Amino acid sequence: MTELDGEKTERRKRGPKVSVATLRRFRERGKQAVCVTAYDYPTAVFADRAGVDVILVGDSAAMTVLGLPSTIGIGMDEMLVFARAVARGVERAFVIGDLPFLSYQVSSEDAVRNASAFIQAGCDAVKLEGGLRVVDRVRAISDAGIAVMGHLGLTPQSLGQLGGYRVQGKTRAAAERILDDARALENAGAFAILLEAVPPESAAYIRDRLTIPVHGIGAGPHLDGQLVISHDLLGNFVGDIAPRFVSRLASLDATITDAFEAYAAEVRAGAFPAARHCYKLDAPGDRPLVAGQTDATPAVPTIPELSPARNNSRAVARASLRSQCLLHCSCPPFSPGSPTTSSSLFRALRSVNSSLTRRNASPRSAHACAMPMASRIRS
User: Fold this and answer.
1) Claim: this prediction has a pTM higher than 0.85
2) Which of 91, 196, 201, 266 is catalytic?
3) Domains of the chain in sequence order
4) Is 7 an active-site residue?
5) What are the pLDDT digits (tens) for 311-328?
6) In the structure, what pLDDT confidence band is assigned to residue 284 with cuts at 50, 70 and 90?
């Protein structure tokens, strides 16, 4: 049980932990594994609650989270931060850490060391890109007791060699080459293969000739599991890439932008924070000094001289008067929704200014005089 803001919440039991054996059983039974990417704790929690089977902490975080133009620029330090956050949020899903560029290509020792770091961060397995040329790395990682997934087809860490984001396996000969790579990875100890951007016919041809699970991202429906980038699914990827193989099931970009705009409008109009957002004193009769004040005469905040004819003047005047009252006065806060006229607001503001100027009075005493006057006047 955890406690947040006085309310007790219990984490929902999400079922037994998914394992390599679970994914093998899915293949045997013809059940599709549901796979998504996640890079942070909240997304991992939401995906796990939804019953997602596999969560990939992908190097796609370079683009989706860090705003980089490709996956090449992310390293182990960043990936391990994301991996730890995801692992903390997961109870059931199988978590795979994506080995970033140059974390395994140089030597088998590097590959094992970095794969081990993902396991220590809470992942259940790792993924790496490439076929025959990384067989030694796959075998070394597997021999170290770490589950490893291969990644074939479109491999983003090799975009320079592939000539960009291009579909792979479009001919029989190309499909056969991918199959050769897949068999080599299977023989080296890979527990599964991910195919990216491969025509469905080629993907099915490759899958049917392997004994390990084959998952796809943009590789058609005839596989053992489907992966999508969570930002593509949820509609909050900031960039120009829009894969055709993703069903956008939400529009979080618009939802988030609208929420920020609404918040900004409330702050600028003086509607936030309202009384319900503020903490109360234990002894309402005791009014402590404003934080940072001393016994010396406090600095007088500037209240703008406004003309009732100015556009939106009533909202601006109300916000100014209300904010000064909340900071310095013991009178009730001036409600943004009260039915006052513009002229009453400006008379209250000018009364505050004149009182402070004539008497060098504190904002508290001036507001205590001005606020009741303003609140008594109605439209």
Assistant:
1) no
2) 196
3) 11-250 (3.20.20.60), 259-376 (no CATH)
4) no
5) 444 444 444 444 444 444
6) low
